[in-house]
Amino acid sequence: MILLDGKKTSNDIKDEIAVSVNEIKKRGEKVPHLAAVLVGNDGASLTYVGSKVRACERVGFNSTLIELPETTSEERLLKTINDLNNNNEIDGFIVQLPLPKHINEEKVLLAINPNKDVDGFHPENFGKMALEMDSFIPATPFGILQLLERYQVETKGKHTVVIGRSHIVGRPMSILMSQKGPAANSTVTLTHSYTKNLSQITKQADIIIVALGIPEYLKADMVKDNVVIVDVGISRVPDESKPKGYVIKGDVAFDEVSKKSSFITPVPGGVGPMTIAMLLKNTLIARERGGNHS
Prior knowledge:
Layout: E1 2-3, H1 6-26, E2 33-39, H2 43-59, E3 62-68, H3 74-85, E4 92-95, H4 105-111, H5 123-130, H6 139-150, E5 159-163, H7 170-178, E6 187-191, H8 198-202, E7 207-210, E8 227-231, E9 235-238, E10 246-249, H9 254-257, E11 261-264, H10 271-289
Parallel strand pairs: 1-11, 2-3, 2-4, 5-6, 5-7, 7-8, 8-11
Antiparallel strand pairs: 9-10
Helix pairs in contact: 1-10, 2-10, 6-10
């Protein structure tokens, strides 16, 4: 069993990005600049945005964090997005989800300039991705592809089962794994909460990508030997014996499933760190596409 180490791989990618940033600086050109908009004070979002800002520092990017109160109106948020769209200093930006209930997420995502949409959530980018055109690939699926590619996991002709059909992971993953290219060319089955006899399908899978948000959902009796497991889930499970009062669990019962796996991602330290690394990679791509802005 080989661990698909997202922490190590994401650090490798950040080192590669830092080298590119140094080259940009040597040429006296504008350094990549990522902005993040955070509305309200959701604990998980605060942690996540904080780690994005630190990652920017590490690779030599400029970063801007725009914090808006929970009560911010949709109109005010849309104005902030418009300002970022028109700010030539900013190469890419993200609006951290989830947003407060009174704000229409779809309207917000549509307002982002697709050329600065480094999360890859804009329908224009999603459509281009589906058609195998140049676009920003959503950071989590992009990170999964990189893990599979860098660990030389054989995907060609393999049966990949994706569990979960969210627009952020499951749906794009099912499209990407069936496309041409490295870490692709597989036969994909997309499953979800209405799928009947799910374990019959997962038992046939060579590769399983789980993005459900149900802790330890995938058990050893649902997989065959030598399966490749990518666990996207991350849930806080209450545990009084732990200092924080909880433990982080993935969607896979790691201890039992890992014994049957050829490759498996740990949680934490698997897909999570890769997401941030690929957000930086997308920002570098946005900067390169945007001309030199020297």
